[in-house]
Amino acid sequence: MSRAEQALEAAAPGGRIGMYRWRVCAMLLAATTINYIDRQVLGVLAPFLQDEIGWNEIQYGYIVTAFQAAYAIGLLCTGAIIDKLGTRVGYAIAISVWSLAAMSHSLAASVVGFMLARFMLGLGEAGNFPAAIKTVAEWFPRRERALATGIFNSGSNIGAIVAPLMVPVIAVTWGWQAAFLFTGALSAIWLVVWLLWYRAPERQPKLAAAELAHIRSDPPEPSVKVPWSRILRHRQAWAFVAAKFITDPIWWFFLFWLPKFLHAEYGLTLLGLGLPLIVIFVLADVGSIAGGWLAGRFIKLGWSVNRARKGAMLVCALCVVPIVFAVQADNLWLAVALIGLATAGHQGWSANVFTLTSDMFPRRAVASVVGIGGFAGAVGGMMIATFTGFLLETTGSYVPVFMMAGSAYLLALLVVHLLAPRLEPARLEG
């Protein structure tokens, strides 16, 4: 009996479904965790590197903008490259670049040196989400993708938790250069495991026929690649692009300015930053998984995919609104609670926004759509990085940025609904 016949037989009622696909999800979780550890090292060390290297707020904004610019360029290109080369090779190339770039920060001794290192890091790290989203689309049926995305996306929060826990200790013990070297080495270890272990579902001999049938239980899709010009004809693509452009900059602000905000407003030391940042990103981690679970729960209650996805996104958007009061908080832990609720809202939102791509586009186009949307988000990140640098240098006030954060998600949800009122699949043929 052929493997295809075994799969059909295993798909019959009563057949047991394996769990191998969740091992793949665990690999994506590990990669995303490392991805965010690498990028978060600078944010954790920023208040103290600023004194050592001698940059001002505007120059720090430029360093962050260099990362965002490369990230934008990388996302615009890597989605199509990964669609062409496949997730195994495409992911390997991306993580090779970002591993070397992360370690190169240890050689930087000036603003320009950090800008160059951040630029290369942005190019490599841009491949993570297009590759991970495409892997989820290949390994999970549509009804499980939001949860799988929420799980691997929670790695961004785990990375943001591990970084303030680990980086200050390494920096104080062995110097700030060692922090960049250590985190870059983690990427290299993941790369070796990925190349030795990962195969596509049809080529993975350890995958049971029943699980393969479960993975392929959605209607079959054509395998012809889709050019960007055809993707961008559809309002569904612009809905995802708009969501990323409006809300991604808020997450970038959280990553690169929260340590500076806590240091400036509450006088926290390098070691003192650890616990507040850990609490904030633990809450974000909970929000990431809860956001994906909530949409799936709504679907199980009989809601349409459209209503369930947007209902979950609305709940997440409302969680961010109270952050407007964080700047006036006279107590550190009240500020931490408000910011943590906002980061949880963002990550739950993000899990559902990423899943919009596989709701509305076939697997063969998912990485390209994610890349285009990620480009838009990174461009928004460039804008907020430069804006925040000039704002803080001239006024020292975080109020305008927190006001933007509180309103961004509701605005984005309105735009998504106007562009994709029913989340209908895009018809790419023809």
UniProtKB/TrEMBL annotation:
Statement: the UniProt record of this protein carries the keyword Membrane: yes
Keywords, in A-Z order: Membrane, Transmembrane, Transmembrane helix
Localization per record: Membrane
One Pfam family of this chain: MFS_1
Domain (Major facilitator superfamily (MFS) profile): residue spans on this chain: 24-424
Domain of life, source organism: Bacteria
PANTHER family (alphabetical): HEXURONATE TRANSPORTER, SOLUTE CARRIER FAMILY 17
Protein name: MFS transporter
Naturally occurring in which organism (per UniProt): Pseudoxanthomonas putridarboris
